[in-house]
Structure prediction request, 109 residues.
Amino acid sequence: MLFVDDLLLLPFTGFKSILRTLVKVAEEQYTDDAPLKERLLQLQVDLEEGKIDEDQYVEQEAQILRELREIQAHKRELAGLPPEEPTGLSGKVKEGSGVELTWDPNAEQ
Prediction:
């Protein structure tokens, strides 16, 4: 009897398998950051060749970097990791950070 049940449910299990594969492929494409990195590289080449000016470069670079951060955040979410804390330029140096500062007030500027 189990064999008959399996045969009757086969179209549904096959359909579920196809849907799982489609979701997996879509997820891989969504989290692939290689095309964005290629766009960033092409943007740098366009700037060097004079095809775009500095303002256009900065605007497009910011957009690409935002998209890269979104992909990284989504990858962290899929891996079950907590979202990254936004790190701005706080100017704070924590103990043990490896930052070394030397200052000579008599040095020429």
